[in-house]
Structures are given as structure tokens and as C-alpha cells.
User: Which sequence fits this backbone?
DNA sequence: ATCCTGACTTGAC
DNA sequence: GGTCAAGCCAGGA
């Protein structure tokens, strides 16, 4: 059934596990999946995530800088920022304020 | 088949 | 501390 690699499904699964008000980085997911050097694939997976039936909170996934790099890839751009702000995350200049405090690590959430 | 690009990360200067 | 360059895998031309 896996049209795409299971890696993609795994990325979606982890992304959906991200609790509201929390954000994570592509590398964090990649590292958890064992693809630390393939953070780009995580981003590519997110591109398909928009077509996935179960909505994937891609807006909770940002780069290691806490910068909303994928903002322009959303259906309506800037939607990402609004969604994050709606969840209580403060964003300034397309960058998450106190990103470290809102950082969510799959390895920690899924218990080591 | 090659070359380039891309929602990234890390190491080095 | 910021900036540059290389590495990474997949997809499109």
C-alpha cells in the first residue's frame, strides 16, 4: 500500500504526534528516523504531506533556525505563521521566538 | 544518462 | 558570532 517509501509515512506519523504549541525541526525527525543527513527528504515528504488524507501539521515543522522556511509552500502563504501564533507560538520576522522553549523532540516525546 | 534544484544540516573559516 | 562550502536523497528537465 505504501506508494511512497515508508520513510514518508513515518515522517507524517511523527509530524502528527507534535503537540499544539510545539514545533520541531526536519533534522530532529530525520535523526529519529535514522536519516539525520537527509533532512531535505523530510522537507520533501512534507511537500507530499499536503496531499495526504490525514492532515499533517507541517506548520509545526520548521528548520533548525526556527525559521519558517516552508511558509511559502503552504496553500495560502503566511498561513503557517498564523497557525503557530494561534497555538501560542510567537513569531517575529518569520522566525519563532524562543524556539528552543517550543522545540519538540520526537525522541523525547516518544520516550527514549 | 547527466545536471540542477530543493520545506535542510553540519563543519570549517 | 556570522558566513561559505560540502553532503545528502529525490525529482524534474
Assistant:
Amino acid at each position: 500500500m505504501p506508494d511512497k517509501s515508508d520513510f514518508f509515512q513515518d515522517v507524517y506519523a511523527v509530524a502528527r504526534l507534535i503537540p499544539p504549541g510545539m514545533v520541531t525541526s526536519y533534522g530532529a525527525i530525520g535523526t529519529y528516523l535514522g536519516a539525520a543527513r537527509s533532512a531535505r527528504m523530510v522537507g520533501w515528504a512534507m511537500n507530499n504531506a499536503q496531499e495526504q488524507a490525514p492532515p499533517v501539521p507541517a506548520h509545526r515543522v520548521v528548520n533548525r533556525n526556527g525559521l519558517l522556511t516552508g511558509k511559502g509552500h503552504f496553500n495560502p502563504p503566511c498561513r503557517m505563521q498564523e497557525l503557530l501564533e494561534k497555538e501560542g507560538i510567537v513569531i517575529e520576522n518569520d522566525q519563532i521566538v524562543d524556539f528552543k522553549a517550543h522545540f519538540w523532540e520526537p525522541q523525547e516525546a516518544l520516550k527514549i
Notes: Chain A is about 40% helix and 5% strand. Helices of chain A lie at 6-17, 26-33, 39-49, 79-86, 99-102, 106-109.
